[in-house]
Amino acid sequence: MGPSRQFPATEPLPGIHHQHPQRSPTDQALGIPAARLDPQIHAEHHEVAWQVRGRSQMNLEGKIIELAENDALWIPAGLTHSAQVHPDSVIFPYFFPVDDTATVLDDASLAHLHHDETIYFLALKQMTTTIIHSRINLARQVLSILEHRILGGDELPRPRTPAAAAVAEALLFNPGDDRTIAQWAGEVHASVRSLERAFLRDTGLTLRQWRLHTRMNAARSLLATGASIASVSHRVGYTSPNSFTRAFRTFFGATPSQFRQQNSPPSSPVGHRPAALRAES
């Protein structure tokens, strides 16, 4: 993840340069007053604060973070935080249970969402507030977006053929995507044979092998954070911890439990303050 840097309490995060566009005549005020969120701490849930509209100021144990439209702030469990929401602003919170969430995001982190990524956040909010549900695991999609924006990509060889490259990008984005090869071929308007041949020619791996590498790389990173085997298996697309354990042992030559014992970081008390905040540039 690279070296971390300490920031004075009032210094803005590097890499985020907000430019606030002028409002159009049709962008009317919403009549929403300013609001203050008193200091709080969630010991059993991680939180994401998505600035849908306007601006907010977050205070993470003395670190002042300015949020502009489409900024998303990852707040790990155990971190005391408060907020000042500006007038005519909209901010949505999302909560992820610690015991059920496997993620490599261990520090408070700031990301700026692309416009086409915000639909996943809106859809997840709809799922949690209405009876309308998606067949896709939207919480997993949202976590993948944040990890991609904050931490970047991987080292697997990428296919060059457009259809295969689109599949690879989607699998890197969400290693747990369980669509079959035939379904992927239909998504990118290619035949199964041409898709498989493109992966093998461009990467030296079949599509099945390439997806397995993606899942195992993601699982290894998640296990190293101390996440439970059950949550990791779910995150990377396995229907049961047992099937995940078999695949992991075949791939790495060690069970997830053995790997985690060798690579888990030292435990820290609840409320431990992260060393620094990361920002997506």
From TrEMBL:
Domain of life according to the entry: Bacteria
Alphabetized Gene3D superfamilies for the sequence: Homeodomain-like (1.10.10.60), Jelly Rolls (2.60.120.10)
Region Disordered: start-end pairs: 1-29, 257-281
InterPro entries hit by this protein: Homeodomain-like_sf, HTH_AraC, HTH_AraC-typ_CS, RmlC-like_jellyroll, RmlC_Cupin_sf, Tscrpt_reg_AraC-type_HTH
Alphabetical UniProt keywords: DNA-binding, Transcription, Transcription regulation
Recorded GO MF terms: DNA-binding transcription factor activity; sequence-specific DNA binding
Domain spans labelled HTH araC/xylS-type: 165-262
Name listed for the protein in its UniProt record: AraC-type DNA-binding protein
